[in-house]
Amino acid sequence: DGGITQSPKYLFRKEGQNVTLSCEQNLNHDAMYWYRQDPGQGLRLIYYSQIVNDFQKGDIAEGYSVSREKKESFPLTVTSAQKNPTAFYLCASSISTGVETQYFGPGTRLLVL
Amino acid sequence: GQNIDQPTEMTATEGAIVQINCTYQTSGFNGLFWYQQHAGEAPTFLSYNVLDGLEEKGRFSSFLSRSKGYSYLLLKELQMKDSASYLCAVRVAGGYQKVTFGTGTKLQVIP
User: Fold this and answer.
1) I need a labelling partner for A41 at 20 to 30 A (CA). Which of A34, B2, B48, B85 fits?
2) Model confidence pLDDT, tens digit, residues A79-109
3) Neighbour-count burial of B94, counting CB atoms closer than 10 A to its CB (0-12 exposed, 13-18 middle, 19+ buried)
4) Which chain B residues are closer than 8 Å to A42 by Cβ?
């Protein structure tokens, strides 16, 4: 069954702590993306990767970091520098960053303790 | 930059037809997407328009007018399960073809 998985579904972060959100896809897609969704706002792009070992900052990259060591995996780390991390985080992938549609994972809801 | 406008909320009756509008201002337009998102879940792809006109897919249709910077999503024979947010998203041409999402329209279907 092809698809995108994200884990965990819910994640709690303590003050000053870094947390990592997992995103895995078995669709053989080259491009992967991380978005943040806040109530009343559209999805905002954090980082994207067009190919393995390459990634670029999106609109709101401050306080976040990513890696793309494998085609299937694009983990997102929310660092302590991100002062307002509470949000719904969505990972997506597409065949490339051309005209293809982005498909989304189920999301991770991050809450601050 | 890009600017996308959609109504915040709409209410419609089960069995009826509803039209959700989306207007956009952008340079280098290269396609418009509609996604459906149920509360707490991931967006799911509904439609893609890059040329003017109407694309029909079952109960859902999407229309685009590039000259007017306007699109709409038409939902027919509404069902209770259609209660969700509907996101309009615009792609711009370029080396990386960025997709910008609107804030979404929350549709409530009532009996």
Assistant:
1) B48
2) 988 889 999 999 999 987 766 789 999 999 9
3) exposed
4) 4, 87, 100-104
